[in-house]
Amino acid sequence: MAASALFILDLKGKPLISRNYKGDVGLGEIEQFLGLLVRREEEGALAPLLPLGPVHFLWIKHANLYLVATTKKNGNAALVYAFLYKVVEVFCEYFKELEEESIRDNFVIVYELLDELMDFGFPQTTDSRILQEYITQEGRKLETGKWRVPSTVTNAVSWRSEGIKYKKNEVFIDVIESVNLLVSATGSVLLSEVVGSIKLKVFLSGMPELRLGLNDRVLFELTGREWGRNKSVELEDVKFHQCVRLSRFDNDRTISFIPPDGDFELMAYRLHTPVKPLIWIESVIEKFSHSRLEIMVKAKGQFKKQSVATAVEIAVPVPSDADSPKFKSSAGAARYLPEKNLLIWSIKSFPGGREHVLRAHFGLPSVDREEDEGRPPIRVRFEIPYFTVSGIQVRYMKIIEKSGYQALPWVRYITQSGDYQLRTS
Q1: Three-state DSSP class for 141?
Q2: How far, in Å, CA of 288 to CA of 292, rounded?
């Protein structure tokens, strides 16, 4: 059992919604939990899981609500938290915003959704698109109309409806990688990782089976393909959508699945490999007689020359008392945000191997003041289409459907900045 009870509380601790599957948690325990929560917050020792006697309270906060699940057994905490966040996602799909007012205005629909989301403490149908087929905003119609449970709920493939038809069958595949990077003031890379995801947009008729092939190093080793090892990648921390047949992947590394209709994330992965900074930044600050400040920023694209970074934005911290900005750059445009103490340098198109320079002049008050200890890091945002920093490639996409139609797969690669920081002091 994942949870013995589920509660939605306001910030004062008043239960708005309760589902007590075992009947072993009452209002008294909820009041004790809120008291413990307040005490832990005051002590600075707040934790997402709070034990109270034999009961464990697993909670999250969203807007002005607490979502709380309880259990007396040694349950799967990760499953419970995943379910709580899924509840938030489903409610936001229905009500746009999940807050106290939307719960009070939609009691009937909330309870109907909870009955489908969880049964006796076990998660059930959590796909909002499937739920919307038979739980509508007009709850009263469920009582008067011919109520019928969609086949997707009782079908083994609960994430896809039957009878889907398209005039043109297509699959769009987006391979998106975010680069997280932290560089010290001396130029050494302190942290680098690649967080990737493969997202699909599916417009396929019927109930097709898809097979996706990647340049997976483990696959090449299993099949003895020596020629492919140099261009392969070793995926770590892989997480799949529920549609993927995990047993098949464990056996022969084949990603086989019957996809949901429309948009979804097929898989996410992480690579802890050394990453050369794609855009390198150098910054030099000079002060002149405490009345004038000059900042020189040099940016260099350290990726392939045939690739072009777009929507580049370099955020350089400046002193809080700087004023009268003047800019001169070899590319792009600069602007000053005094409320954030930032100089923003924007470059629409930045080809690989190129170097650009920005010079910024600021006035300073004549009053001399002590230097602050350290400066915030420079942050960089960018996007490089048709490029992946890890080298991952979609080798093939096979689409099998009993009617035998032909479908077109389209693949797009994008590398973008994640948490990309370069320290200056």
Answers
A1: helix
A2: 5
Q: Are 67 and 8 in contact (CB under 8 A)?
A: yes
- Model confidence pLDDT, tens digit, residues 365-404: 765 554 555 689 999 999 999 999 999 999 999 999 999 9
Please state, in angstroms and as integers, the Cα–Cα distance from residue 72 to each residue in 69, 120, 369, following that order.
Answer: 11, 14, 59
The full DSSP string for 63-108 is TTEEEEEEESS---HHHHHHHHHHHHHHHHHHHSS-SHHHHHHTHH
Coil, helix or strand for 423? coil
Task: Please give the structure tokens belonging to residue 156.
Answer: 């083994």
- 358 touches 328 (CB < 8 A): yes
Spatial CA neighbour of 164 closest among 130, 202, 205? 205
Alpha-carbon torsion, ordered 8, 9, 11, 13, to 10 deg:
-160
Rounded-to-integer distance, Cα 420 and Cα 220, Å: 32
Nearest to 166 by CA among 207, 211, 206: 206
Other C-beta atoms lying within 10 Å of the C-beta of residue 242:
12
Give the alpha-carbon dihedral of 263, 267, 268, 272, to 10 degrees.
-150
CB-based contacts of 364-369 (< 8 A; 24+ apart in sequence) = 364/287, 364/290, 364/291, 364/292, 364/293, 364/319, 364/321, 364/322, 364/323, 365/291, 365/321, 366/290, 366/291, 368/290, 369/321
- CA atoms of 250 and 7, how far apart (whole Å): 37
CB-neighbour burial class of residue 205 (10 A; exposed 0-12, middle 13-18, buried 19+): middle
> For 322, what's the count of Cα atoms within 13 Å in the CB-facing half-sphere?
26
* Degrees, nearest 5: CA angle 34-39-41: 95
The Cβ of residue 244 has, within 10 Å, a number of other Cβ atoms equal to 21
Identify whether the C-beta of residue 98 lies closer than 8 Å to the C-beta of residue 91. Answer: yes
pTM recorded for the entire structure: 0.71
Looking at the DSSP bridge assignments, the partners of residue 239 are: 268
Mean pLDDT across 21-25: 67
CA distance 371 to 377: 16
Contact 278, 307 (CB under 8 A): no
Where are the extended beta strands (E) located within 204-248? 209-214, 236-240
- pLDDT value at position 374? 66
- Residue 88 tokens, joined: 């938030």
Residues forming a β-bridge with 379? 315, 421
